[in-house]
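Hi R.,

Here's the input for the magnesium ion complex you asked about:
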Amino acid sequence: MQVLQGIAVSPGVAIGEAVIIDQEGFRIPQRFVKRDAVDAELDRLKSAIESVATGIAKNRDTVSEQLGEKYGAIFAAHLQMLRDDRLNQEFGRLIRERHYTPEYAVSRTLRRYAKVFLDLDSTYHQERAHDIFDIEKSLLRDLLGRRREELSHLSSPVVVLAHNLTPSETANLNRQFVLGFVTEIGGALGHTAIVAKGMEIPAVVGIGEFLTDVSGGEFVIVDGDQGRVILQPDEETLARYRHELEEHKTHIASLESLRDLPADTLDGERIKLTANIEFPQEVKSCNDRGADGVGLYRTEFLYLGSEEEPTEEDHFQAYAEVVQAMDGRSTVIRTLDLGADKMGHATPSKEEHNPFLGLRSIRLSLKNVSLFRTQLRAILRASALGTVRLMFPLISTLDELRKAKMVLKDAMEDLDEQGVAYDKNISVGMMVEVPSAVVMIDQFVKEVDFISIGTNDLAQYALAVDRSNKEVSHLFQAVDPAVLRLINTSIQAAQQAGIPASVCGQMSSTPAYAMVLLGLGIRHVSVTPIALPEIKKLCRNVTIEQCAQIAQRALAMDNALEIDTFLQEELRRAIPVTVPHLPRT
Ligand code: PEP
Ligand code: MG
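And here is the predicted structure with magnesium ion in place:
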């Protein structure tokens, strides 16, 4: 048994067989063979080794001829390794005695060999490890042949282990079969994490190198609450986690009783509790958990989930589905927030040196006005079907906001000319997620109908921490005193201007932090659907007076650790039994 620690990004526990996705997307579909199939499997391995050896020999000859013997020797070494008696005996033994499939025997053995080299501290040995991975790949490619499956074509429940999953790969995971996933890289608030949470797939990221320690088909436990991954768990651990899974289900069931109750505080203040979604399909889980509406619809996922550039009709269909399902409750549709870690067709073609400071979000929309207009037309059309609010992301200057509003005005005029219906009084708001917007917030609030504070980006830019970079993600603190002050300033400016302010960053899904937000004057929080019951429970167990006092004390503290510890303590006091199923941000 091996216990690995990573970053908890999507709560819940998953227990299942591992599927390892490397760059080539191989997976080992099955670990064991039937006793009577052993001979046939040994033959299959023998012919795979022969065919790979022929390929390597061919490479050796071609390279020797064109570049010289020295280069050809690289392949000669591969060939020698592949034909190594000890190695072949080990493959054979695992198939004969343990009834492993050739794929599993090959992968397990070669990864074990590679690990020995990787652990040696020299470049030479690291290179040898890569040679072994190369051989593993060649053998698997040959053995799996047609059986190589794509992630999207899974047919049985699995836990996906990968070096990295992009947000779009995550978006395309088949929820029916992917029980959980683990990646070697990634941070707590990257968009892969957000999608995982949206899809309610337990996930741990940022484990560091571990794929060499595990083979496809082995049992893995993903503890998305604690950020823990357990390889080859023993029986006792398995039993404990199975029990926890059951308990978790019971806890969720107990929160269900809150579904139809309002998120009123003990002193009778109504808190608007809406959900953040990425896909129209998520409205079901919002409705199932009694959301007051959709407070953030991240429309860029329409781009990330498809191969083709979405048309106006594609946009409209997606928005219409959400707006109609909300049935009178409001939907805040945010215009495209592509770029940085959310790459799609419209994103910069050249690799950017500093993508988080580059052509992303509203900047990208303003550069591609026709794409922006297509989306705005679809949002406006959807506004005829229910209560829609439109929101611009990552606004950093007044000029940017004004330009975005100009494009919106043009789109409205076009629809007027064409006689297409839309809500002429549609509320137009902006996200406050760049520190410059907070500095100028007294001006901004005169030009928008509402603001929504995006604490993920606000903290990222205020603290200069890339939220998806494992090396620095621990420095990301939503309750850093600097961030709390920025939030406070924004809320006060909105109050003075008489416009609503909400918080839609991940911070609002964290009960202890939501208390501070209420105390600072927030009356609308938008959270991941899975957090709706927990945050509702919090609202119903605190008074505004109590939260205000907590917020004032937190504001007076000078470091994030102290604030976090204080808030966790206050939460325990307010709600003695909270199940820690939501990761802190
Ligand atoms: C945020 O930055 O807080 C936010 C809600 O936007 P996103 O996470 O989509 O960047
Ligand atoms: Mg953001």
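One thing worth noting: The first helix runs from residue 38 to 67.

Cheers,
M.
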